[in-house]
Design brief:
The protein is an alpha/beta fold and about 230 residues long. It has one domain: Rossmann fold (3-Layer(aba) Sandwich). About 35% of the residues lie in helices and about 20% in strands. It has 6 helices and 8 strands, in the order βββαβααβαββαβα. Strands 1-2-4-3-5-6-7-8 form an 8-stranded mixed beta sheet, sandwiched between helices. α3 crosses α4. The chain is globular and about 45 Å long. The mean pLDDT is about 100. InterPro entries: AB_hydrolase_fold, Dienelactn_hydro, Dienelactone_hydrolase-like. It holds the Pfam family DLH. This is Carboxymethylenebutenolidase. GO terms for molecular function: hydrolase activity.
Length: about 230
């Protein structure tokens, strides 16, 4: 359904991305923000799914500054080690510049209405949160984002709708971190946190160890409702 494209970086050079369009050829834009496994089949599948729901979806290669073209899985110890190595080397500030560049690019794609949301998972969940504090994205939906509790000071910059999907048994976001997120964000007029009781990290990753179809469908439905409302 989709195609690999190039996106121009703000500081020179460029990076790859996977673009998928709806059958109609037009719709609001959504930037799909990767996990720590790169623009792999899971991310491409999510991008295709959003296209099938009427969105012009684009998943950028945010690890390009470290190693372009990463497409690994969560199935082997070696791949997990590689994924964590990339995560440790990842420059969040540069990553946010690349997300803004992706938003800008997507707004110029033929068929995009100009409204652009962001959706991300794991590392991408954090970057989705930051996309609502540092970019001009129109809405965001973050799944089990890591380290958000350490960046709550940026919440004052959020002026557009953001939903965050929190796995209550998240092995990478402990109860203390979850409590800080609720304390810092529950009263924010533009932010809604949804708790998924009994679910672990990556409950929406199809084929993953902790995949929960019921919870994933609920989270995905909430994401679609947000985008259909905020990006109209």
């Amino acid at each position: 359904m989709g195609e690999d494209i190039r996106i121009k970086a703000k500081d020179g050079g460029g990076f790859g991305g996977y673009l998928a369009k709806p059958a109609s050829g037009s719709g609001p834009g959504v930037v799909v923000i990767q996990e720590i496994f790169g623009v792999n089949q899971v991310m491409r599948g999510i991008t295709d799914w959003l296209a099938s729901e009427g969105f012009v979806a684009l998943c950028p290669d945010l690890f390009w500054r470290i190693e372009p073209g990463i497409q690994i899985t969560d199935k082997t110890e070696q791949e997990w080690a590689k994924a964590f190595e990339l995560f440790q080397k990842f420059d969040v500030d540069k990553g946010m510049e690349d997300i803004q560049a992706t938003i800008d690019h997507l707004r110029g794609v033929d068929g995009c209405t100009g409204k652009v949301g962001t959706v991300g998972f794991c590392l991408g969940g954090l970057l989705t949160y930051l996309s609502m504090t540092r970019t001009d994205a129109d809405a965001g939906s973050g799944y089990y984002g890591v380290n958000i509790d350490k960046m709550l000071g940026e919440a004052k910059n959020i002026s557009r709708p953001l939903i965050l999907h929190v796995a209550t048994e998240d092995g990478f976001v402990d109860k203390e971190a979850q409590a800080k997120m609720h304390e810092g964000l529950d009263s924010h007029e533009h932010v809604t946190l949804y708790d998924y009781e009994g679910n672990d990290h990556a409950f929406a990753r199809v084929g993953g160890e902790h995949y929960d179809e019921k919870a994933a469908q609920l989270a995905n439905q909430r994401t679609l409702e947000l985008f259909r409302s905020a990006l109209a």
